[in-house]
Design goal:
The complex is a heterotetramer, with two copies of chain A (218 residues) and two copies of chain B (221 residues).
Chain A (H helix, E strand, L loop, with lengths): L2 H10 L7 E4 L18 E4 L3 E5 L20 E8 L2 H9 L5 E4 L3 E3 L4 E2 L14 H7 L2 E5 L3 E2 L2 E2 L1 E2 L14 E3 L3 E6 L2 E7 L5 H6 L5 E2 L12
Parallel strand pairs in A: 1-2, 1-5, 5-8, 6-11, 8-12, 14-15
Antiparallel strand pairs in A: 2-3, 3-4, 6-7, 9-10, 12-13, 13-14
Chain B lengths: L3 E2 L1 H6 L6 E4 L9 H9 L5 E4 L10 H6 L3 E6 L6 H8 L4 E4 L2 H13 L4 E3 L13 E4 L2 E6 L4 E12 L4 E2 L8 H7 E12 L18 E3 L8
Parallel strand pairs in B: 1-12, 2-3, 2-9, 3-4, 4-5, 9-11, 11-12
Antiparallel strand pairs in B: 6-8, 7-8, 9-10
Helix pairs in contact in B: 5-6
The chains are: A alpha/beta (218), B alpha/beta (221).
Chain lengths: 218, 221, 218, 221
């Protein structure tokens, strides 16, 4: 199982029946493949839909139905379409139960930076600032390090996405929960030691005496 | 109440240097014919307010390709490397705005509100230079309304007097832009007689649409 | 012709083809009967419709379609339904070309009081404050006096509806326009003298040397 | 995602003293069955946020008749002399709010905004005791968001998972209230299978509806 699949399988367990969920593009979107049986969730597209579905067949696209990346997609029966103001009313009003987003950096306060690398990459924040500030729970899905360098830091060096603390970090090494006291290691990936997590992290970690192995969706 | 207008005539109303709200999200729900005609007529120095710069060759991206966007207010430009290049080269000014804030600012402009009070952006670079207002012990960022000279919007169906209906994710910024611009020009994939679109399905009422672009000729008819 | 009909006939001439118009209940609503030929306007109901129409026949009512007074009404082809936030977006955003409202008092500044008589009548402002503050033009339709007492005063004694100056007062005696300089008499009703208007008014009036007779819709 | 609930069971969740947003405008679009059941169960000391007090015997007016409204936030009560009497007798507290401001306050509550910046009410008694904020040389009144324990709303059609569609002027305050309350209970004139209401016609998405009241028995079926 590759690192991204492991992360997606772990996060899939965080989705509860009936949840309204917003997934970022890339790794976060992989979570849809591992939904446990009996868990029916609504996927929101911030560009104006609840009820995202994959296309059943190429050639059946509709040019009026795209995802936030501009790819043409499908919709489930019972979907609902709306404008951008309503879509972000859902997000900012706390009606979205969970968002899963990628991360460039997370720091000891649980603050996320994921929208800009000044001088290099200026994509814009899109809906990220709204999602991190407004959703009930925010999970960051990311590879633990980038080119060998830790992405979990004492303090973010990149511009923050929000002043709001995220709920959970899931990497291929561990599940880490930001708390009032700092970053607590909650689960370890199969075969990973706590020393490996500490070595790959630049932030102080709270290490409970017993850390369970990461559970994964089938 | 005659609103039908030729495509060329509609775009002739728009001067160089105009501010345009342009509907769409990554090109889905953008007024592609109006954008094409802006290019054909060589309009330039435009201020464009829209969610994103789409991709080169797509939607607002076509205006970027032609280097006619002097200033852009958007939430996301990362999918269009050309506008990134123009920004870094100082050829274009880009004002980035969180997507939800962008939507509310446009809505506030059209609804006569004084601004938007939001927590999004607090503690980030978005808050720099902006007023913050404490309300019942919590801080909110004051974001100002947006308006424009023209809104160029795309509908799925229009009726003969200009009532508009949208389809799926092509609704996005179009309805709020139709409230926020001095002159609203709409194009529609389909045009139907009055009464075909039921009242509950009309999202943008005809009174907001100043000009409805004539349909495209198809198979010579 | 009775006084109210005269007022309604005069105001009907203020409606322009394509206008979005909001009429208050009672006298203002009578304007619909005198629309000049060739003038097609959209009537807004602030409770959520553009395209109000009278019922063609009793017995054809729909319980989901009422006016702002709760009476069941009809709709024209091309009508549009919406929620209360959108409805007042139209009003407050300046998208309504004209509102015609009743008045209790209007004063020399052109300010209107029409929503409450403290201690006597507390109906609430409903949409009146929004309409007077937000519509492009505001016409007050009222009988010139109440039980012989002037309603056009130096200063309103009742609580104001808005700090915004209204556009025009139409009574059975005259058409009066509030201006920077004060209340200017623009037209006199057929057979009415300027002295009669002055006698029935408690505010200072600007009297031009020539005042045309009030025009009326057929 | 089982949301269907019996009428009695739905109303049993609402305690005495609860704050309720109740949809409707002069009774059009009000949740008449839920109101009737509140009365049958003898609920009292209610705070009601709604556009108006309708008329005696109609909509919210039935709650007023039964003297179970302790406090009401509304834009208009003039059509119901009984609430006027209760207010003057000190039995009920009425907070009057301009209708557009009421709508925006409810929306702000549901959209996570800090307040509403409006010119409506400035220079009138509505502005008394409220903050005014100057923005770009113009004064705006700061009106605070509204939320409630429950929203009781009425739809024209619901599907089996709780997507809601409204008809004509019965939409009014229902969709914004569905965003602004901790628990949302909806009744519908008609209930249909999932997929019958097209995505563009759904105004209130199922995720906002906590409980959908079972249909009424008709002709014994």
């Amino acid at each position: 199982m590759d690192a991204k699949e492991l992360i997606a399988r772990r996060i899939a367990l965080e989705l509860k029946d009936g949840d309204l969920v917003n997934l970022g593009i890339g790794l976060p979107a992989m979570v849809t493949h591992y939904l446990p049986p009996g868990v029916d969730v609504f996927f929101q597209l911030e560009n104006g839909l609840i009820g995202l579905a994959a296309l059943p067949h190429p050639g059946l696209e509709n040019y009026f139905l795209g995802d936030a990346g501009g790819a043409l997609v499908g919709a489930v029966p019972g979907a609902c379409a709306f404008d951008s103001a309503f879509s972000f009313g859902l997000i900012r009003g706390g009606h979205v139960d969970l968002t899963v987003l990628g991360g460039l950096e997370v720091d000891e306060r649980g603050l996320l930076a994921n929208w800009v690398v000044p001088g290099k990459m200026v994509p814009g924040m899109g809906g990220a600032m709204d999602l991190v500030t407004g959703c009930k729970r925010v999970i960051v899905a990311m590879i633990h390090t980038a080119k060998g360098k830790p992405k979990i830091l004492k303090q973010c060096t990149l511009p923050l996405t929000s002043a709001r603390r995220i709920s959970l970090i899931v990497t291929e090494l561990a599940v880490i929960e930001p708390t009032d006291e700092g970053l607590a290691v909650r689960e370890l990936a199969p075969g990973v030691t706590v020393e490996q997590v500490i070595a790959a992290t630049d932030a102080k970690l709270i290490i409970p005496s017993e850390i369970p192995e990461m559970k994964l969706a089938a | 109440m005659h609103k039908a207008i030729g495509l060329a005539e509609a775009v002739e109303m728009i001067p160089d240097g105009a501010s345009l709200m342009i509907g769409g999200f990554m090109g889905v729900g953008s007024p592609h014919r109006l954008i094409g005609e802006l290019l054909r007529q060589g309009r330039k120095d435009l201020t464009v307010i829209g969610n994103d710069a789409a991709r080169p060759g797509v939607g607002i991206g076509r205006l970027v390709d032609a280097k006619v966007v002097k200033r852009m207010v958007a939430s996301h430009i990362g999918t269009n490397p050309e506008i990134g290049r123009q920004m870094i080269a100082g050829e274009t000014i880009v004002e980035l705005c969180p997507q939800g804030t962008l939507a509310e600012r446009i809505r506030a402009g059209g609804y006569g509100l004084g601004g938007v009070l939001t927590t999004t952006g607090i503690g980030t670079v978005v808050a720099e230079g902006k007023r913050q207002i404490e309300i019942e012990g919590k801080m909110f960022l004051l974001e100002l309304p947006l308006t424009a000279d023209f809104a160029l919007i795309a509908a799925h169906r229009a009726d003969h007097i200009g009532n508009l209906e949208y389809a799926l994710t092509s609704r996005n910024f179009n309805p709020i832009m139709a409230m926020a611009a001095a002159t609203v020009i709409a194009e529609a994939a389909e045009i139907v007689p009055v009464g075909v679109i039921p009242p509950d399905d009309v999202v943008t009422p005809a009174v907001l649409v100043d000009h409805l672009v004539e349909r495209e000729k198809l198979n010579g008819r």
